[in-house]
């Protein structure tokens, strides 16, 4: 997959990637940051089942 990713967006055009799981933990997010730099990658995390029961302050709901 790495050769295909390295050839993406050479002209600076926007590129959008949809990933499942945690893209920054052994996923495509880490690869994109390594290739294009931290300032050129934005990750929008979706809510997952595990964090639905957690309050914004990090405490579990009871």
Would you mind describing this structure in some detail?
The protein is mostly helical. It has a domain at 2-6 and 16-49. Helix content is 23%, strand content 0%. It contains two helices and no strands. The protein has helices at residues 2-6, 28-36. The longest helix is centred in the middle third of the chain and has 9 residues, at 28-36. The termini are far apart. The model has no long low-confidence stretch (mean pLDDT 76).
String of helices and strands? HH
Low-confidence stretches: none
Please state the average pLDDT score.
76
Helical segment count = 2
Helix content: 10-25%
Largest sheet: none
- Amino- and carboxy-terminal Cα gap: 43 Å
Write down how many β-strands occur, each being a DSSP E stretch of 2 or more residues.
0
Strand content: under 5%
Structural class: mainly alpha
Gross geometry: elongated
Alpha carbon gyration radius: 15 Å
Write the layout of secondary structure elements.
Layout: H1 2-6, H2 28-36
Observed structural traits:
single chain; 62 residues; mainly alpha; 23% helix; elongated; precorrin-6Y C5,15-methyltransferase (decarboxylating) activity
Short note summarizing the structure:
This protein is mostly helical. The chain has helices spanning 2-6, 28-36.
